[in-house]
Batch of 4 targets.
Target 1
Amino acid sequence: MSELSELYQEVILDHNKNPRNFREIENADRHADGNNPLCGDQIRVFVDLEGDLVKDVSFVGSGCAISKASASMMTQALKGKSKAEAEILFDEFHKMVTGQLDPEAGEHHLGKLRIFAGVLEFPARVKCASLSWHTVNAALHGEDEVSTE
Ligand code: ZN
């Protein structure tokens, strides 16, 4: 097993067992529901904005380990970012899990999120990993529902 896939396993297990920002935000500025019927992942994302900044972001829901870990790490990555920065991250993440961006080459802002490049080996898992990102993107654009179908 490569170093990256070992790290992938470890991080997924950790975030699945102990998801960060796993809570509702009362009176959140934005929220959206995401649904991945292929796997049964369901998530609700909450976003609190301060001007252009993501002041707080959280999620609740149920799903597989990958969807939960991805949502957990997404909230960590987005807190304190501007909406424009969040959009860049969403774009880079999406490109990475669909094989259009090689996290080992070129410049990007993915940081720890690069471990999700591992889902490329499991095409059915790509939607699990990207569900939370599509959902937060919808929330930031004022839409309240997203489905990966
Ligand atoms: Zn899933």
Note: The helical segments are 3-17, 65-78, 83-97, 126-140.
Target 2
Amino acid sequence: MDEDAGGRLPDRETVAPPESFVEGANVTDADLQEQFDREWPDCWARAGALLDWERPYRTVLGGEGDDREPPFGWFEGGRLNASHNCVDRHLDERKNQVAIKWEGRLGETQSYTYLDLHREVNEFAAGLRALGVEAGDVVTVYVPMIPELPIAMLACARLGAVHNVVFAGFSAEALADRMGRAESRYLLTCDGYYRRGAATNQKNRADNARISLDHDLEATVVVSRLGEELRLGEDQYGYAGLLATHSGATVDPVARAATDPLFLIYTSGTTGTPKAVTHTTGGYLAQVAWTARSVLDVEPGDTYWCSADIGWITGHSYIVYGPLALGTTTLLYEGTPDHPEKERVWEIIERNAVNVFYTAPTAIRSFMGWGEEYPDRQDLSSLRLLGTVGEPINPRAWEWYYEQIGGGECPIVDTWWQTETGAIAVSTLPGVDEMKPGSVGRPLPGIAADVVDADGEPLPPGEPGRLVLERPWPAMPASLADGDGWGPDPPGGEWRYVTGDEATVDGDGYVTLLGRIDDVINVAGQRFSTMELESRIVETEGVAEAAVIGGDDDTTGAAVYAYVSPERGHPTGDGLRARIDERIREAVGPMAVPEAVVFTPELPKTRSGKIMRRLLEDIANDEPLGDTSALRNPEVVGEIESVVREG
Ligand code: WTA
């Protein structure tokens, strides 16, 4: 990351946390790290203490393994309910406080107090139960950023059912795939929703998914988002009607074991198929609440806005579970940042007096490109803390965010984590640590992250290597806790979790992320598996072979580039490109359509037949090409280069 998007910057100077912030910060203990080290793993009881337990846990970290070897059982013996923790327990103190503030795409707003939220979560839980949903059943939720989305998640949690939120922009095929894998027999969807002013037909996609499923659905519930009359088939129910039938009903929260699943979410792994990640009720909720409090500095009286989509892990952890567990007001925004105007985001912050704003570097780089005049027109003085997540933030964008948005008075927390970590794992503590623009910070207290070489040996400061987690953490997925994905690395080495990211550590222990080193591309904070995209592209008629790589992009960090070799004799005109795009749109969704498709008679391969991806990356990024002597077909390199350079 020497060359950040858009130019030179002051070298990695440190920035002290602003005094005005430190005074009121949730965490100001300078020796928290040492305390956690001394008390590990019992230190995590501090996270457990943020929750209400129906039955207290016996031990913070149980399981038959030790602190390195699975199985791990966080908060073993404890029982709790996530819906109770996010809703019911706040009723005594903050019944009338807004829990969810919704900003709709068409400019609508809607507020749910904790009392309103309690009522609707109960009614929907009663409705789901009447449709047959029981503890352990998987309920798929396929709706955009509307209040019914967090309500459905909390209603599932109340029943002990496992929610499976599928990003609303995914195609019918991608939905069917995720429902099929999860054997999910219940679906919540909507009639459609607006995207830049035009209505999309979500129900159609849901119906198509149902048709292609191998199993039957018990029930589909449909929210009317477009406000038109719903056309419902067999076993389909309107959301509003279902609530009306169960008006005033209450459902006792079902106590779950700490290690029971709360939800599952699909993400892109290194294989051709989506990877299911299951998060637990106790460990997940505890670490998410703990990090929302100590890193995002969320307080009950705050208005807090995380601009991610709930379809991804960031929205699960830091729009829904973290903020609501802490009893804060969480803002839910359905729209896009530049519609209807480029000042939309700042206008929402001013109008709602947002205290904490958490977004992605891609968004910050776009805001920067649009110019200062938009934030300058609004009063942003309510802001206390800014956060970023999803990709490395270049120092220039960091500075802009700090000065233009935070007015030099809001610390920035650059938070590193993954779908697999469930919660923030590496970041500064905003009231304690100095910030270093471009570097995320030290591993949080209680988290053992390290940068190691191929042999698993820790690397000296500044040397790039693999970011690994050396000890379990409360929000680890159920599979990792059971030892799936946690093991000796390299074979015969220490037991650990390998994150797939490349990073360096400096002399102060601050981690700087360099990007993915596995077959995952991170576009604007959204993950794609190169293998998955390649398999979809080769399903297109006329395509023989495909290699997908992440090319550099100033705004989104990376862009999907596809190198495609057509079947012999197949024309490569626009028709083929259009069919590839269409296939991706159908199989995954519009967000995965490649930025560029380069046709080449052959892909560069080693003598053993492996595609040389590094080489393709270098060509895409206009980098000097390394050694090509290992290639079986070096002549194709020149051809590809000329196509790319001319195109
Ligand atoms: C990347 C999103 C640099 C990283 C929460 C990680 C980051 C992947 C940062 C996970 C950050 C996340 N700086 N890179 N602050 N945060 N990443 O699963 O490559 O959608 O492995 O989870 O995003 O993406 P995921």
Note: The pocket of WTA is lined by residues 267, 312-314, 389-392, 414-419, 440, 499-501, 513, 516, 522, 527 (CB under 6 Å).
Target 3
Amino acid sequence: MLYEKIQEAISFIRTKTDDTPTVGIILGTGLGSLADRIKVSSKIRYNDIPNFPTSTVESHSGELIFGELAGKKIVAMSGRVHYYEGYSMKEVTFPVRVMKFLGIDTIIISNAAGSTNADIKEGEIVFVKDHINLQPENPLRGYNDERIGPRFPDMKNAYTPALIQLAQKVGTEKGIKFHEGVYLGLQGPNLETPAEYNYIHTIGADLVGMSTIPEVLVAKHMDLKIFVISVVSNQCFPIEQITQTTIEEVIEVVGKASPKMISVVEGMLGIL
Ligand code: HPA
């Protein structure tokens, strides 16, 4: 049972730290180097935590980092798993469940995405205001434990408007250009065909990616406040703009945008 699995993970973590973080951060693409800025109190490897998704292929499976960032007590996930790697949606989202039961009330998530909005360019950052879920399998499917959340969670304002406003304030004050947009999630791992990018644009999405939505569904199920920040790694609309994307280019684009993302998140934490 999910509730018991969460408690098992919590019990183990509580043998290592009695920290009480209020904000959880998933250090996805663009925020990875935020890990170096945390005043660390403890680190726990995913491999050691009961029921955490573990990876046998990577030498470094990921870790939960407890500490302080911009004066705020936080817990950060350094390393995350994706549905396209073969994990179930329940496995992908289990760490979010655990962070909630550690006491967080807010979650911050970053990702890289393709842009299907001609006005949102490569290297720019986007505060996600809503999503379209086209991923198969839902982490909330199956038995619902009311101790964790409701059977039919509402999705209006899943992306907490007050957090978006805060991000806008921070971005404006720091002179950082930003957009707001709708994120569409697909399972990947392939990128999309031109016809698919066109379709994604047509149905109302500004961004497309392969992560984040499962974590948001689970976070909203547990009534967390949610903030998602994306970096555009490739321009996908209009379709003439699509170029063959190499991983090297993506890393370069994201590397340039990363300081902007870090600056926004730290600015928000300082005020929260
Ligand atoms: N499609 C899907 N996921 C992505 C993309 C994309 O173009 N870019 C970065 N993540």
Note: The CA atoms of residues 122 and 232 lie 5 Å apart.
Target 4
Amino acid sequence: MIITKAKVIVCSPGRNFVTLKIETDQGIYGVGDATLNGRELAVASYLEDHVAPCLIGRDPSHIEDIWQYLYKGAYWRRGPVTMSAIAAVDMALWDIKGKALNTPVYNLLGGRSRTGVMVYSHANGKDIEQTVDEVGRHLEMGYKAVRAQSGIPGVSTTYGVPKGSGKYEPAEKGLPPEHAWNTEKYMRHVPKLFQRIRDVYGDEPLLLHDCHHRLTPIEAARVGKDLEPYRLFWIEDPVPAELQEGFRLIREHTTTPLAVGEVFNSIWDAHELIREQLIDYIRMTVLHAGGISHMKKVASFAEMYHVRTGSHGATDLSPVTMAAALHFDISINNFGIQEHMPHTSETDEVFPHYYSFEGGYFYPGDTPGLGVDIDEEKAAGYPYEPAYLPVNRKEDGTIYNW
Ligand code: KDG
Ligand code: MG
């Protein structure tokens, strides 16, 4: 079998997505997700202009060799654009291999290690009471684990809080919007949110919270300590994690489990965090971290240090990533939890898929390959529209982490 075509499809069914479709001379094709929120066209060009021409004529069964060719062969290693492009190729090649061998991808990764993949959903509200109601709604839907975010009194807009009556979606059409931030108000507010949730729903539900990179290590240590009575499953992205040793300080002060990694793109962003056991969950994804092939290595390394996975799964990762993530999640031993943020019905229509949800768990399905596709005709009806993530400023105008 040889690769005959590698096509990049950019579409916007509800939000922007970049998809790679690799075709072969035997009629089998595979799909991969290359979406990088707010920087979509950079990855599209990287794939179209620099990667696709190098794939034509290669044997798609040589997944590891092609991965190394694209990683080592580019000379310029790592970075979100490069690693998302490599990931898209990697997903598409695993999809092709599964279809060619007539088996779901998880069988090629060692087989199933569990029956289902536990996911956490998002409960977002403008204030504590709205978030509490949303937690209840998700528990009723069967979720065992729920992430809770709420608006902060005195802060006009913040991460995770829907603007109107619709669902929360971080990217906004047009140029980047600006949000305001106040750490002190946040730190006073967040323990009250979790106290109320535990008062209403008791000890059973697994609760998570995303700090979204907004604290310094000592502030994160304080938040972790203040949240200890509510026994969270994790706090996520307590600090911007370029400085891996910053986690040592947080770790010395709190037993609240720590999760990080949605902006990481290779093991080299996390090796110290894992080796020194400074975190509990590594949240890199098969999309932004080089595909299933690289994530297998990350998970194996993490397994030695008691670190489990917790893959990022926001709406800016397409159903192709969700499918690939589920095959990965179900196959590894040190799986922790998978994020789930439902896509819009337009997105689901453009990306037909076989994965399914029941009782708090997702199932990848037994279709050969990844069990997901792109309907190109429908995709063509949703052209790309520029959209960006917000930029954050402190109340005095200083640019801050979003
Ligand atoms: O593109 C950025 C989003 O994926 C991110 O803001 C979502 O933090 C996020 C999460 O945990 O889902
Ligand atoms: Mg996050």
Note: The chain has 13 helices and 18 strands.
